[in-house]
Amino acid sequence: MKRSQRRPIRLSALRCIAYEVALNGWRILRRTVNDFSLWRLIEYPWATKALEVRRGDLVVDIGSGTSSFPHMLAKEGVDVVVLELDLDRVRWQKEKRAATARPGDGRFFPLVASATAMPLRSDSVVRIAAVSTLEHIPDDEAVGREIGRVLAPDGIAVITIPYTSGERTGFFAGIRRFKRVARNAFVQEGKAGSFFRFYNEADIHRVYVQPAGLQISPLRGFGRSILNWRYHETRLTRFWRTFILKDLLLAWIVHPLEERFDRSDPLYVMFTLRKPSSASLKQSGTK
Asked: Which of 65, 115, 128, 245 has the most CB atoms less than 10 A away?
């Protein structure tokens, strides 16, 4: 069947929960085991749609850790290459795949590799996904260059990262002990590998857009004054990974209302990067 005859894949929030149950058991509804939470119910459906992906396509997923998102794509018949620096997390991905693979799934390739030096040919990747991962990589400028290098002409990268319009001086203040180590960057005291960075719009363009002259979509946000400042970054965060069905209601009801009426900074933004082809550059030059 030709690609044009295949339906674009969509993952609703409810379907994401169904996949989580299939991958990790019913206990996931009571307490998640792999950071499946409210933000994922917003990010996964958006990222899947933004990838413009169909059955049989290939997606390179950057830094998923123990996320189920690449497995969800594989269950939809998508081939997935997972690039993850941590060996234990790659082993987790392989074991999860071996335990849950079914006929009709897409192929699945977890690799120990750094996003700062991807083992991929230049101009070879049509689709890249980086869902809440790039903020944990200290050398993000190297990642930005690599994304621009490996993307094929007309290729697309879908990215979600933490956002600030100015400068963040605190994170989980009074709840968890995060130490500020650079402008808009923090580490959690006593927790290895907890680096966390916020981006403003200038940072996004400097790190991810300008190195390869990529085209960026408008930013879409989530996690504003209700979902973040009155829930996530408060002591209510102890419920963050519990009773997942509550998050479905928050994603369905509160998130759309917040994005429509709340103009405060979002905690995260979602956007796409596209590498223009020579044909599209010529076309834009004639307009």
From this structure: 128
Could you give the angle at the alpha carbon of 43 between the alpha carbons of 9 and 262, nearest 5°? 130
pLDDT one-digit tens code per residue, 116-137: 999 999 999 999 999 999 999 9
Whole-number pLDDT of residue 286:
46
The 8-class DSSP code of residue 55 comes to: T
């060996």: which residue's tokens? 87
Task: At 17, list the tokens.
Answer: 């929960």
Q: What is the 3-state secondary structure (H, E, C) of 47-66?
A: HHHHCCCECCCEEEEECCCC
> Encoding tokens for residue 251?
């994603």
Nearest to 255 by CA among 35, 42, 45: 42
Nearest to 39 by CA among 263, 273, 254, 218: 254
Closest CA to 83 of 59, 48, 99, 105: 59
Distance of CA 243 to the CA centre of its chain: 22
pLDDT of residue 282: 58
